[in-house]
Every structure is written in C-alpha cells, then in structure tokens.
C-alpha cells in the first residue's frame, strides 16, 4: 500500500489521555493509519519525526474568526496565527455573536453589531449553509460554528432593553432550530453584551432547550465574570439544568480585584454540579489579560438603540455624565468592568485610524490629554465608529493556573483577530501551554495538555472522527518538538510565530512545513450532526 504521507520515528500522543507510545503514522486519502514503529512502507512524502511528538490537530474551542473579513496582508497574517500553533479546527460563533442566521431584512442591524465589535468589513448570512458556502476554498484550517443568541436577538428583537415577546421567542427558537439542523455546533450566549444582556433567564432556557433537543451544548460567556461571577455561574447551571443541555462555561475566569481567588469556589461548584449529573465543562486561555470591544465596558443602555444611535449619544455631555455616574455606582445585573478594576488596567489593542493610541492605557491617554477617562473613551469611540478593541489586565496568575489544571477545563484562545495590537493569545495560547505550563512550570503533563487540546474538545462539540490519532480518523495532526515548543507572541509583538511546531497537517495535506506556510487550503466548515439528547435529570 502506497501512502500519501508517512511520519516515522516519533512518539505518538493520541489525544485520548493514554501515555505516549512509539508508532508510525500514515495518511491516505485524508485518513489516518497507525502503524507499528519502524514497519516501513512507501509514501509520496516521508517525514522523519525522530525526537519529536506526533499529536492530533489542536481544536480551539473559543474563537471569533468567523467574523474576520477582508483579504489584505494583515488579515492574512491574522488567519495564519492559530495555524502556526497547530490549530486545525476552530469553534467560532462564541459570546453570543455569529454572522448567521440573519434574515435579510435585519442584516444591517447585525452588521452594525459585528462591525462595532470586530471591525469592518462585516458580513452576515441568512443561514448556516450560506455561511459555510461563503468560506469557499480559502481556508487552511476547519471551522465549526455556534449560533449566537445575541445575533438571534438583534435580528428579531433588536437592541431594545426589554424581554422578548412570546412570538419573538418562537421566531428565535425557529431560527436556532434550523441552524442546528443544518449543522451548527450549539448555542452561545454573551450575557454581558448588548443585546444579549437584555434577555432574562427564561428566554435563554427556552433557547437552550432547542440546543438540548439536538444533543448540542449551551456555551456561555457568563453574565458576570467579576464581582458577581458566582451568581452568574448559578444562573448558567440553572439554565442548563432546566433545559437538559450540556453546559460549557466560556473562558472561565474570576476577573477584577474583588473576585481574585474565587476560582477555588467556582471550580468546586462546577465539580459538584457534575457530580449531581450535569454535563458541565469549561475552557480557559493561559493569560491574565482579557480582551473585548471598548463599548462593552459602558452601561448597556448606551447601545440600547443600536450602534449608530450609540455613536451619536456618546458625543453628548449629558450622556457622558450618566455614564460616569453608572460606572461609579454600578447597575443591577451589569458587569461593571471599570468599576471592578480601573481605567489603568484597560489598554487599547486596536483603533484603526488612531494607531498612536494602541498599546496605551485609557488612564494614560486621559492624563496626557488632561481629560476625564469617560470623555477620552467616548471621543475614541466616536472617532473610530465604535471599532475599538481593548485589553483588560484584570486576572491573577493563580486563578489562571487553577482553571488550567482542572480536569473540567479544555484550552481556548478566545482569539479576536483584528488588526492593530491584538491579544497575544490568538497567536500564542497553545504553544504557551505546551512550553511554559507543561515543560517549564510542570502544571500539566504533555499527555494531559494534548488531551485538553484534542480528544476532550472533539467529544464535547461532536466533532466526529477528529481529536484522536486512530485508524480511519481525519488526518489533522501536528508534529512538534516538546523541548523547543514555546510561544513567540507578546503584548508588544502579538503575531510573532511560535517555536518548535515542525509540521501541521489538515485533511491529509501539509499546511505548515517548518517556518513555511504552504499554499494548501484544505479547510472547510464542518457540519456537526445531531446527537442523542441527554436523558432528563432526576430532581
């Protein structure tokens, strides 16, 4: 038998959590064949992996790359960043924002939301099928896509600060059901962001029931990850329990000075919920800084009438005074990032027409201009049409390590691929775990880390025949040097490539060969099949 690709002499870590073993890995017609070490055989391409480790392709369970549009050189560099680390599949549509399903009559409303959060150009699609077709043959790695609750709400209810009517909720459920039937991977919420912040728990339960009927997870950016993180976690558990859905807590953290150390309690709560029968897991990125849109730091009423109205409102002195008051005192049910941290922890990552402010904190910018920070923020939002991304240095290292080490946690980047100075997690998360937290710190074994990057997320999101090195599985794999693997990305140089990743294979084709990215583009949008719904929990 002649193979397309043969990788010989390496140690295989198969993604299941089993110990490493010596084996050769063959690829034929995009599928894997595991062979005894040194068994020989002929292949069109042979890779000598002596001294190296062969793993399944990494699965990043939380990205926003479905919203990365445009074809300029910098955007192409952004697309390559996860691939160079070995990420062969990304789960996108997180935090309640996806570019589908958007009925044509509401496309402008959702495009405004996407553009203000992730930057122009912004595209939306009527259906999952249209979204998948639009990716064409341009991708090097695969995407699986969640349906965003914020997108559903923007398309049906808009940004209004009110509960959905019964008819509106039925329409959202219908759109969700159609997308899940077509192959979307689950439901996501971003309950700190408009318009999702306006939804009550009952609305989310109704939508999560639709996901549960397809055997697909409810994936949530909690309503609060700061001072009220524990009550927000209880809401997520309530939603998943009532809906009968599997629960995925996105980028789990306890941010802001008032919640540092709370991962001791939140992880214990997740373990108890799992012991009680709830299928709950979480994901985490290996950094103490987060990243989001600048307008997300403002009270939700600022964007209640949509993005164009927000851009008009932030120019008004009375609006700025009200923002200052709410930041000082807080609002019920709103995660007050600035109130829980301070403007000195907020750094501008991307401001396309004002590159001189990138890398500087809001506190520093305000001081340099002799202005109040709220005025500085509002001026910046108005100048950039809302398209400003920030970094928030709001977490503590012991909390990050505690979540990383949890058997309930898998790895993510939460990559927001925007030009400027994006968070280094987009280009560094997976290599950072393998280098810093596995080899240098010893927080995890290499086998444990690979499982969190491969077999565990594939099982969670129903990615059939992926996540393991096993006969007949899709030939997505990574060859790396465990002694050299490390992240190159920093806050000052956020797209610097990693070290030690020798080969990346997607669909049986080599897409990364040493320092070179090949022209192969075998990536596609994966349609995730329905699974058996979980049996009802006994109460």
UniProtKB/TrEMBL annotation:
Q: Name one Pfam family in it.
A: Amidohydro_3
* Positions of the Amidohydrolase domain: 46-512
Superkingdom per UniProt: Bacteria
Query: Which InterPro entries does the UniProt entry name for this protein?
Result: Amidohydro_3 (IPR013108), D-aminoacylase_insert_dom_sf (IPR023100), Metal-dep_hydrolase_composite (IPR011059), Metal_Hydrolase (IPR032466), Metallo-dep_Hydrolases_sf (IPR050378)
PANTHER family per the record? Answer: COLLAPSIN RESPONSE MEDIATOR PROTEIN (PTHR11647:SF1), HYDRANTOINASE/DIHYDROPYRIMIDINASE FAMILY MEMBER (PTHR11647)
Protein species of origin? Micromonospora luteifusca
- Protein name as it appears in the record: N-acyl-D-aspartate/D-glutamate deacylase
